[in-house]
Design brief:
With about 375 residues, this protein is of the alpha/beta class. The chain has one domain: Rossmann fold (3-Layer(aba) Sandwich), CATH 3.40.50. β3, α7 and β4 form a beta-alpha-beta unit. α8 packs parallel to α9 and α9 crosses α14.
């Protein structure tokens, strides 16, 4: 229990873990949705401190990881154009497309820039009227308000050289897809607190009732995570279904209503393909017709680009909680942070990146140990 000795809230965490031991009487499988929670769990060894009956599996809550391969290829095609300044969060630059990544486009002369906010991209558009500025708008519900604000700001400024390449995904449809799968193993969820801070959790009770599972809304500190686990396990042991908020300091049932209204003004629900998983109905957001002029996919006519995933990458199985990273035969050998086959190995929220960074190994599908150089 080295983690307990080093973490600043070690005693409270230890106390919650002891409660989990006391209430656990049978095996349970819980899924954390958020990639940030995955990294905290693996970094601090939270899953290894729990009773052996409790298994944590990792969900599709890494926005970089679930951005489909053809959308990466569309981004690469746009970024390579001499009339474009392509802007993105730093995580996306190393995500592999079919043949290269955004770093390779930049090395070949493409103007690819890392920004910390889409509003930075709007400023670049103001400063470069002779260039087309494109922002790679990825993310779950948390990044949507800033992305729609950039479109509204560009509209207010009368900018004709700004557009966004949209790859927004939504959590509730992904939960439906996981729980409705005949392969599903998940018996309870840890819902991502930052998503719920924006959207509230009023979408979640119908999911809990339909699939008869408990959902615990929780945060990202180890103490938050173990409290969420305790909340979910107590519900499972008592046979309760429904949603409980274990993160009340940041999350309300209604969420941020002004942010939700702004999202609805610019975006509408659409079917979205998730990398390695496939198309999930109504799981994405796309621009409404009245904002179509800001759609980079149509502006640059890249919508017909299609791509095939590497047959060696099992990221889709990992994102559905069906496999662990070390179950992949390529993990740490053919697939590494320096030479990734999929986004889960390079994203700062990817499960494979977490297992690789923190030295987590295990028995793989062939009965050997998942290792790396």
């Amino acid at each position: 229990m080295k983690f307990v000795a080093e973490y600043r809230d070690a005693k409270p965490v230890q106390g919650v873990i002891e409660q989990i031991y006391r209430v656990t009487t049978r095996p349970w499988v819980l899924m954390e949705i958020c990639g940030g929670q995955t990294h905290a769990i693996v970094r601090h060894g939270i899953d290894q401190l729990l009773p052996e009956e409790i298994e944590l599996v990792h969900g599709p809550g890494c926005p970089v990881c679930v951005t489909p391969l053809e959308l990466i290829d569309q981004a690469l095609a746009i970024a390579a154009r001499p009339d474009v300044i392509f802007t993105s969060y730093g995580d996306m630059l190393r995500v592999p497309g079919s043949a290269r990544d955004l770093f390779a486009v930049r090395a070949a002369g493409g103007d690819v820039r890392v920004v910390y906010s889409p509003l930075d991209a709007v400023k670049i558009a103001q400063q470069n009227p002779d260039k087309q500025i494109v922002f790679f708008a990825i993310g779950f519900e948390t990044t949507a308000p800033a992305n729609v604000m950039s479109v509204l700001q560009a509209q207010a400024l009368g900018l004709k050289n700004y557009s966004i390449l949209v790859s927004h995904v939504r959590v509730p449809p992904a939960m439906h897809a996981i729980l409705g799968s005949p392969e599903n193993r998940v018996q309870g969820f840890l819902a991502a607190g930052h998503v719920c801070a924006v959207m509230g959790y009023w979408d979640y009770p119908p999911i809990a009732q339909q699939y008869r599972v408990p959902i615990a809304v929780t945060g990202f500190e180890p103490l938050d995570i173990v409290q969420g686990i305790l909340t979910a396990v107590r519900a499972l042991e008592a046979g309760r279904v429904g949603v409980e908020n274990a993160y009340p300091r940041a999350v309300t049932f209604e969420g941020n209503k002004p942010a939700q209204a702004m999202i609805r003004k610019v975006f509408m629900e659409c079917d979205r393909k998730w990398r390695g998983v496939g198309t999930i109905p109504s799981s994405g957001w796309c621009l409404r017709p009245e904002f179509e002029e800001y759609n980079a996919e149509t502006r640059f006519e890249v919508g017909e680009i299609h791509a095939d995933e590497s047959p060696l990458c099992i990221a889709g199985r990992i994102l559905q909680g069906l496999k662990k990273p070390f179950d992949c035969l390529a993990f740490g050998t053919l697939c590494s942070p320096e030479h990734p086959l999929g986004a889960t190995m390079v994203s700062s929220e990817g499960a494979c990146a977490a297992y690789h960074k923190y030295g987590r190994v295990g028995v793989n599908e062939c009965g050997g140990m998942g290792v790396w150089a």
